[in-house]
Input
Amino acid sequence: MSINQASYAPDFEQSLAGLGVDVTYTTPSAFSETLGSVVEGQTIGVPLPFDSVSQPEWVDTDVTPAKLNAATTSVTPASLGIADYGSVVLDSTADGAEQSSLFVDVHIPVLSATDIVRSMSDAIDRIGPKLRAGGSAIIATGPSATADMGALVKGAHGPKDVHVVVLTEQTDGERTEQTDGGNQ
Amino acid sequence: MSNAREEKAAKIRHLLETEGTAVEENTRGFNNGRYESVGKLSDYEGLKNQARSIKEDAIEQLPTLIDELTQTVESNGGSVYIAEDAADANQHIRSIAADCEAERLVKSKSMTSEELEVNDALKKDGVDVVETDLGEWVLQLADEAPSHIVAPAIHKSRSEIANLFNSMFEPDESLETAEELTMFAREELGSLIEDADVGMTGANFITADSGSLMLVTSEGNARKSAVVPDTHIAVAGVEKIVPTVEDLTPFIELIGRSGTGQDITSYISLLTPPVDSPTVDFADPDTAFTERDDDRSFHLVLIDNGRMAMREDDELRETLYCIRCSACANSCANFQSVGGHAFGGETYSGGIATGWEAGVHGYDSAAEFNDLCTGCSRCVNQCPVNIDIPWINTVVRDRLNNGQPTGQFDWLYDTLVPDEEDGGLDLQKRLFGNYETLAKLGSATAPVSNWIGALRPVRSVLERVAGVDSRRELPQFKRNTLHDWFDARGGCRILASHADREVVLYPDVYTNYVAVDRGKSAIRVLEALDVHVTVPAVPESGRAPLSQGMVDTASDRASGVFAALAEPLDAGRDVVVIEPSDLAMFTREYEKLLPKASYERLNENSYDVLEYVYGCLENGADPSVLRTREMAVAYHSHCQQRTLGRAVYTTAVLERLGYDVRESDVECCGMAGSFGYKREYYELSMDVGDRLKEQFTDADTRERTVVASGTSCGEQLDSLLERQSIHPLELIDPIVKKQ
Output
């Protein structure tokens, strides 16, 4: 992890706090336990692209439409975090990561701290080549929301809650640092 | 004529009563949110300029971009169809639906699809079209049209929506809260999306280099509509294309802020269809995503429908830069009162809608609401792509006056002939457009003209024939004009040879013939600051005819003004202007009306009178030569003065002289020149004014002296409040007036 990138984590966390989104930091060795503490109900997900961690066995990665409708929580990877906005970038993949992130009540994007960039412009610079190669991505900021029914309501068509899990590097003594950035 | 006015007044009155409250609450919320959100940007102006330049370039090279995009989408595996008009687009979309034997099509919100009226076209083929945006769904159920381009159902209150759902669906427990209504809609729409055969989206932007759609949403319905079914149709105007993915950045940063005042919406979808992700086939619920082998199809329908002609039109072209954020609607005082059901045409609403409607549906549609733009210019600084929206409204008004899109006209009248109604220019417009002639005549015959003007039969005729509302007090013309007074006192008391500075005080029509006192104050204030003042004969600025859409007349006036001021400018004199709407002509609109060099010379040397006073004080003038005192004032600056960024000087000067200033923050007083005098708009004007009244009658302001910079603002304030307003110059005039 370069020093520059690491320095965006506090800004990212502050932006998420402004959105009412919790963020939890975890090391690879504590990942499974951390995840267990933030999921709710039946949990689905897609395989994570990080070398250091993989989905715990209790996350069902064999997602079908039926499971999509039945699950409460999903755990999917985020390819980028955007510090200025508290956004995560969700790549659209053949295993249905985007779909899994959308239908559930609680979405848990897992992000490597090294993938947090400062600005929207930095993010788009990374997304551009992917789109030109035929890829798709969602810049997701907080939960789904609508004000169409006379007041702001979270969870219009998509998740009502988002909880970001940030993977940091292993530290001596396997210290697990947990920080709640939310304002509940 | 007068019947049409009565009908218009009745429609506006009805909307004020039925939808006004909900529209006002929502639009003002968006508007305040925008100010707050853009305030957090470190380089807002830089982003706007960047966005503007991307759009300018994209429209310039549009034919090339269309070709490039077509190739990209086709090589990605999608199809592209360029539809000449709505009928052509609908026919193509129907054939796609027929090919895949679609029974249900789910849609995310798209104004372009509203423009096409594609829902009706598909319904004829028996396709069940479902709007999945919650607001759009409410309107579909209620069979109503959007009242706002971004938040389509803002005119409906929560309780109206609850009544609608409860009566249509008869749920076991009746729905009441926003949460209950939202969850109910989510369930209903969720199951409708599950069975959908085709998903239709619009596109906020399309990138030619990758063939990606950018969709700006918060609910998540666009994401579902695009990826659940295996067939995706996207409809978008050709103007939505930008060259590269990287070009999207400033728009992502600006669009949510400019619209609903959110820094960013929940989802910015960047989809490159046909997408690689699996369809969600609920008819096959147990096959895992990883085992699917979907054959997705994607159809991009690019709509011309008048846009390529707009691109060739020097005045309407800017409309194509519009990103449909709704900032112009939310910052518009009239829109805040009536919403898009009055301030809108067949499809589009808000300030920029005039350009869209004229371009895609024609001038008749634009004519329905074009007059609701008063030219106050508050939207100008709010537009993320710097479109001069009032100018587009003026040009369209001009073309409507002419009865043809590109005609020229020459309305130059030496005298008014109010009985000649010849099917040409509307008499009301002609009356207000020729205000200078009227003022000269009124002044020359004052006070008789004022007596006549006050007679009930005269007002009745004025109302019936020219649509001048008889509830308004007419300006009282002064027999002794500012020129007369200035000449009689022997001109300026400060000799040019002894003066620190020399200025030309622009004698605007109102100051010269009606509000002569503020003109006298201006001269005394400037003299106190050792400024040599001249008051030459200069024609009306052209503001009055321009606001009626009489562009050629305004242009002619601009030439006259410049001719009269060229010599003083050459002699190094500054031009000082009392009336903000005239200063706005010199510094904004004249760019369109005068040769570049003339405009620049006048623009660089023109000052708001209080801005000039501020400059003198900053350069060492002694403030005690002016009338300093501890006094609490409630100050309403002028809309155009705020757009120009000059209102700050009045506040600064007043505070420096000891006044305690509380400023209004409404977008406009509602009078807006002649607007509030017009019979059909009187009630709207007063409704807009009520917001200002509220601010100036609260516990902190109700005892304060009311101060206004603009002529019409002062008149509006006088009709709204029990106390009279005065001009800031009269406050600081060193000669204490004997009351």
